[in-house]
Amino acid sequence: MRVVVVGAGVIGLSTALCIHQRYHSDLQPLDMKVYADRFTPHTTTDVAAGLIQPYVSPPDDPREMDWNQQTFDYLLSQIHSPSADKMGLALISGYNLFREAVPDPVWKDLVLGFRKLTPRELDMFPDYGYGWFNTSLILDGKTYLKWLTERLTERGVQFFLRKVASLEEVARGGVDVIINCTGVWAGALQPDPLLQPGRGQVIRVEAPWMKHFIITHDPERGIYKTPYIIPGMRDSSVWVLASGLRAPRSG
Ligand SMILES: Cc1cc2nc3c(=O)[nH]c(=O)nc-3n(C[C@H](O)[C@H](O)[C@H](O)COP(=O)(O)OP(=O)(O)OC[C@H]3O[C@@H](n4cnc5c(N)ncnc54)[C@H](O)[C@@H]3O)c2cc1C
C-alpha cells in the first residue's frame, strides 16, 4: 500500500503516525511518504501556542467531540510518561471569562476540574462578571513536530520537500491513498467553501509571571475577536491575541 500525506504540520505528521501505527502490520509493505513545501520550523504549527481547548460553541459536526475526546485522552495518557517532555506536553490551568452568564460548554467533562469562577476569583477581572476555571493540556507545536518526525523516521517514513500542484499529479505517481493535510492552503488542492481562513494579530511577549491562560469571550462578536493570553510551554514568553478578525462559521 502506497500512502502519501501532503503536509507536515501537526495534522499531517500525526495523521501519518496514526496510520502507520495502526496499519503497518496489516498492510505490508506500507510505503508512506510525506510531501510538503514547508517543514518544521516553518509551518503554522511551529508558531501555535498549543493550548488544547475546543471552541466554546457546539461543533457543527458531532464527530468533532469524539475526535476532541480521543485526542485529549491520548495526550493525557502520555502526561506522566518519559516522552511528555520530548513531545512538548504539559498540563496547564486557566480562565475563560465572559461579561454575562453563559451555558456550560460541551467540553466541560473533556477537560479536568471544570468549574465556575467564585466571586473572589472574578474580583481579579473587573471587566468580567462570569467565568470558568479548568485544567487542560498544552502541546508545544515545534517540539511536537520534532518528536513526530523522529517517530516517523524510525518507522521508515520518507520526507520530500515538494510543492504539490494537484492531488491528480500525486495520484499519477502511482499512489493508493493521498491524505490532504495542507492546513489553511487545503482549498488550493481540494476547494471546500466551508473552510475559511481566520486572521488575527498575535504577539509574543516576555512575561514569566504569567502561569495561567486567560481567554476572554464575547459570544455576540464571535470567537477570537477578544483578547487571550496563553503562557508558552518552553520559555517565559506568552502568546497574546491583541485583536482578531475571523470569518463567521459557515454551515
Ligand atoms: C499564532 C497562532 C497561535 C495558535 N495557537 C493555537 C493554540 O493555542 N491551540 C490550537 O489548537 N491551535 C492554535 N493555532 C492554530 C494551529 O496552529 C493550527 O490549527 C494548526 O497548526 C494547523 O496545523 P496543520 O497541520 O493543519 O497546518 P500547518 O501547520 O499549516 O501545515 C500545513 C502543511 O501543509 C504544507 N502544504 C500546504 N500546501 C501545500 C502544497 N500545495 N504542497 C505541499 N505542501 C503543502 C505546508 O508546507 C505545511 O507543511 C494557532 C495558530 C497561530 C497562527
UniProtKB/TrEMBL annotation:
<keyword id="KW-0274">FAD</keyword>
<dbReference type="InterPro" id="IPR006076">
    <property type="entry name" value="FAD-dep_OxRdtase"/>
</dbReference>
<comment type="subunit">
    <text>Interacts with BSN (via coiled region); the interaction is direct and inhibits DAO enzyme activity.</text>
</comment>
<keyword id="KW-0966">Cell projection</keyword>
<dbReference type="GO" id="GO:0036088">
    <property type="term" value="P:D-serine catabolic process"/>
</dbReference>
<keyword id="KW-0576">Peroxisome</keyword>
<keyword id="KW-0964">Secreted</keyword>
<dbReference type="GO" id="GO:0005829">
    <property type="term" value="C:cytosol"/>
</dbReference>
<dbReference type="GO" id="GO:0006562">
    <property type="term" value="P:L-proline catabolic process"/>
</dbReference>
<keyword id="KW-0702">S-nitrosylation</keyword>
<feature type="domain" description="FAD dependent oxidoreductase">
    <location>
        <begin position="2"/>
        <end position="228"/>
    </location>
</feature>
<keyword id="KW-0770">Synapse</keyword>
<dbReference type="GO" id="GO:0005576">
    <property type="term" value="C:extracellular region"/>
</dbReference>
<keyword id="KW-0560">Oxidoreductase</keyword>
<protein>
    <recommendedName>
        <fullName>D-amino-acid oxidase</fullName>
        <ecNumber>1.4.3.3</ecNumber>
    </recommendedName>
</protein>
<dbReference type="GO" id="GO:0071949">
    <property type="term" value="F:FAD binding"/>
</dbReference>
<dbReference type="InterPro" id="IPR023209">
    <property type="entry name" value="DAO"/>
</dbReference>
<dbReference type="Pfam" id="PF01266">
    <property type="entry name" value="DAO"/>
</dbReference>
<keyword id="KW-0963">Cytoplasm</keyword>
<keyword id="KW-0597">Phosphoprotein</keyword>
<comment type="similarity">
    <text>Belongs to the DAMOX/DASOX family.</text>
</comment>
<dbReference type="GO" id="GO:0003884">
    <property type="term" value="F:D-amino-acid oxidase activity"/>
</dbReference>
<dbReference type="GO" id="GO:0005782">
    <property type="term" value="C:peroxisomal matrix"/>
</dbReference>
<dbReference type="GO" id="GO:0048786">
    <property type="term" value="C:presynaptic active zone"/>
</dbReference>
<keyword id="KW-0285">Flavoprotein</keyword>
<dbReference type="GO" id="GO:0055130">
    <property type="term" value="P:D-alanine catabolic process"/>
</dbReference>
